[in-house]
Amino acid sequence: MDKSDLVQKAKLAEQAERYDDMAASMKSVTEGGVELSNEERNLLSVAYKNVVGARRSIEQKTEGNEKKQQMAREYREKIEAELQDICNDVL
């Protein structure tokens, strides 16, 4: 798939709110080794911002009893590992 197809796929994924797919497409664009345009940088930023944001939202939803908090902590650790992989991926 060429660069313009990948960018178009990322735009479609954004419209469908499929940010993991959007991030994957933009990652493929960056692997081409060519400097990104402003639009491409914006798409990359939006993709990873939303991928990370969706995983961070667990922090705000865990007010309650100790059992819920423990479950949330364990799940957060799993998400933190995913975030680490995502961040390393984009770098």
UniProtKB/TrEMBL annotation:
SUPFAM superfamilies: 14-3-3 protein (SSF48445)
PROSITE patterns, alphabetized: 1433_1
Swiss-Prot/TrEMBL keywords: Coiled coil
Domain 14-3-3: from-to ranges: 9-91
Coiled-coil stretches: 58-85
Pfam families: 14-3-3
The keyword Coiled coil is annotated on this UniProt entry: yes
Protein's UniProt keywords contain Coiled coil: yes
Oligomer status and interactors: Homodimer, and heterodimer with other family members.
Record PANTHER family: 14-3-3 PROTEIN (PTHR18860)
Annotated family: Belongs to the 14-3-3 family.
Protein name as catalogued: 14-3-3 domain-containing protein
Source species: Cirrhinus mrigala (Mrigala)
Lineage: Eukaryota, Metazoa, Chordata, Craniata, Vertebrata
